[in-house]
Specification:
Elements: H1 19-22, H2 32-44, H3 46-54, E1 68-71, E2 80-83, H4 91-102
Antiparallel strand pairs: 1-2
Organism: Microcebus murinus
GO cellular component, one term: cytoplasm
GO molecular function: acetate-CoA ligase activity
């Protein structure tokens, strides 16, 4: 299975993909090694990992209590997961407006 742009799109007049668009080796995104490292960090220290991710977002109301609480053990009570309980954000602002108005990258293609 092939992921990414159809063959006709994303090619220059010479028929080759640009370095900027495709990245090194013609691939996009993070490499497998980086993906594995991020996954490992998310499993071994979910509070720290997702806390770092959350720092990159605008928060209308920051998390007032514990960042993450959970119980997966039915012998210890109700099974639950609570992420950033009480925090509020504006996802549209985080994924669109910040990139257009603050980072000045509104002329860039965000997703193909």
């Amino acid at each position: 299975m092939r992921w990414g742009l159809p063959r006709e799109r994303g090619r220059s007049s010479s028929g080759s993909r640009g370095q900027e668009e495709a990245g090194a080796g013609g691939r996009r995104g993070v490499g497998l090694g980086r993906y594995r490292e991020l996954h490992r960090r998310s499993v071994e220290g979910p509070r720290e990992f997702w806390g770092d991710i959350a720092k990159g977002f605008y928060w209308k109301t920051p998390c007032p209590g514990p960042f993450l609480q959970y119980n997966f053990d039915v012998t210890k009570g109700k099974v639950f997961i609570e992420w950033m309980k009480g925090a509020t954000t504006n996802i549209c602002y985080n994924v669109l407006d910040r990139n257009v108005y603050e980072k000045k990258i509104g002329d860039k293609v965000a997703f193909y």
